[in-house]
Amino acid sequence: MTKEELQQLEIRCPSEEIKKQVQANWDAVAKPLDGLGAFEALTAKLGAALGTADFDLTKKAVIVMCADNGIVAEGVSQSGQEVTAAVAASMGKQASSVGKMAKSIGADVFPVDIGINSTEKIDGVLDQKIRSGTRDFLMEPAMTEAETLAAIEVGMELVRRFKAEGYSLLATGEMGIGNTTTSSAVAAALSGCAVEEITGRGAGLSDAGLLRKRQVIAEALQKYDFGKDETFRILSTVGGLDIAGLAGVFIGGALYQIPVVLDGVISTVAALVAERLVPGTRAYMIPSHKSKEPAAARMLEELALVPVIDASLALGEGTGAVMMFALLDMAMTLYETRTTFSDISVEQYVRF
Ligand SMILES: Cc1cc2ncn([C@H]3O[C@H](COP(=O)(O)O)[C@@H](O)[C@H]3O)c2cc1C
Ligand SMILES: O=C(O)c1cccnc1
Known about the structure:
- With 352 residues, this protein is α/β, with parallel strands linked by helices.
- It is built from 14 helices and six strands.
- The chain has a single domain, classed as Rossmann fold.
- The chain binds alpha-ribazole-5'-phosphate and nicotinic acid.
- Catalyzes the synthesis of alpha-ribazole-5'-phosphate from nicotinate mononucleotide (NAMN) and 5,6-dimethylbenzimidazole (DMB).
């Protein structure tokens, strides 16, 4: 796929009719009108994306893009790159945070090596490696155009495959030391917001580390002098293989009509990249939480997506998206087994 082919992809608009039908089904439930709040609108969005008001979200999976970032050489994370491979290996055994949470609700986790800085194959991790880590973006662009496109295609292809395997809801997750730096850099460039406003402590940076991280991002942004609409150049120059792969998951979700749940700051930045590259993609996005990382709220605003969980989560891996899976499961139980006003014979007494 070329960059031009990517940008010419056309996204089908989800059906407004189905959205209305789902809302009408909610309105018939013996409960206060709009009582489930955002979950009514979100399930209507899910039904419309899936093309039916009788949808089933039982089979769910998180795609976790794992990759290293050359920018870590600049001292922007409190951890070393080795941690990426170690946590990915733990994920392969379903022993990392996201694996445990997903297991508790019967969702599947697929860790993907899209660019871990190691040559070994990791058990339980899909090998889709494009290169062993990106370049240090303070020195040179992190990725070439071809590498960026290849990463986007990995994400798109995984969605096609999981749809064929019967999944009806996917979520995004990531693991990659340094990826809150790449995400903050992309977020600042896409939004024009000040670096200090958008950059947080990631996985737990010290005050001095945070200062350094902000300086590194600011220096790089000055060097590359991006226009806000140069989405692809921003992604390939200061982004990462994980962000590009996740953008591909969102684009694939829209193309193959499988809704995709966002997680934290990294996937939220990838979501905005996807929407800017292929407008209309956001119609298939389901927000989950507002990360503690400041860039996330800003990106969600740009996407006009309102998260339902506001709990200062800052874990990544797809954990916030899995929490959303659990909440959607509860909403779906009410929807699928709906007890209506007529079931309890009170239609004549209720006047909405
Ligand atoms: C042991 C460990 C497990 C993690 N799981 C997710 N992250 C999270 O922290 C990383 C980003 O933070 P920064 O940009 O500050 O490096 C990502 O890998 C993210 O998923 C972790 C981080 C660590 C240290
Ligand atoms: O928002 C996130 O997902 C996040 C925040 C800090 C560190 N890692 C991930």
